[in-house]
Amino acid sequence: MASPTGRLGTDLEPGAVAAWRAHSQRLWGEPFATALDAFRYLGAVQSQEYQPSKLTPAMRTRPDAEGLPFAGVDGVDALIEKGAVIRTHVLRPTWHTVPVEDLRMMLAATSHRVLQVAGTQFRSLGLSEAELLIGDETLAAATSGGRHLLREEASEALAAAGIADPTGLRLIHLLFHAELVSAICSGTPKDGKQTYANFDERVPAGEVAQDEAVRALALRFFSSRGPATVKDFTRWATLKVADAKAAIDGLGLESLKVGERVLYYVQEQPAGRESGPVVDFVQGFDEMMCSYTDTKELVTHHSVPPTRFPGRARFTSVILLDGQVIGSWKATLKRESVLLETWRVRGFTAAEIAALRRGADKLRAWYGKPEMELVLEHDE
């Protein structure tokens, strides 16, 4: 493994790591040909907010229709409907959308740890190991033969099998457990609602050893999200530090030192940054934020003290200035227009306002609206 080199403030300018990550994540630079290419590159897209999550692969992709700034939402919907990508619980106790061919690998790497983390919640809901096993077997059988069940239909099947009160949080956790043990996964949506399908019927066969899976996941993470720390990776994938370090050592990743932290990467630092300020409107759980819980101080904009950032953002979705969080936004769709409300932790220069307007206009076009009302607010 290469020895760490470089220090923030000498070899790296403030904000350089964020700009590097924006290129690694392909938020900047050459866009992908299709949304599926973007999914395959990123590996997993956090998607508990189902509709907004489609923006993550879309904005890293070339336009697939006239007038769009990047891939349209219909293209992402089509991938989910045909099962090319699967929206399920993996990596952490939340939803992710994953290329179908990678799902077994990601579960082999992380599911046992996620189940350990969730154990307390299972017990608090009165779900015993025996009951969870019955739930897994029942759901696998109920979805066999190509049957894709709505949540209500899954609840009925569980009740018929003798599971007590398979509703509310108990139902959610029974489904969650069955996903993590490869009994079920997401199916084709019905009327916009989530369904559940038989895992083995929807996901290509193939076993992956845990150490091989962790190594494959590490390569995917540091290729698409570097530079990042070991803890960024372990928290993203709910892994033990020892397992993550073993994978990194096996891959021989390059590294550099930023302050007191060692960051690993695969993609080299880009030769030059984008000219002028760049503003991106991303969904609230975009991988530009969710991948870096250990180095979160590098995620927020370096021009503003961390204490200026509120504990809870004004809006759910996020405004990035030169790859770092500077504010948040909300879109309200109207008949012929979109209302975009924006809030920033500080005022913008004229060049930054111009970049913000360009970013907002891309969003308007993606929503398919001819008009836009843009509201600009910021802290003094």
From TrEMBL:
InterPro entries named in the record: AlkZ-like
Protein name: Winged helix DNA-binding protein
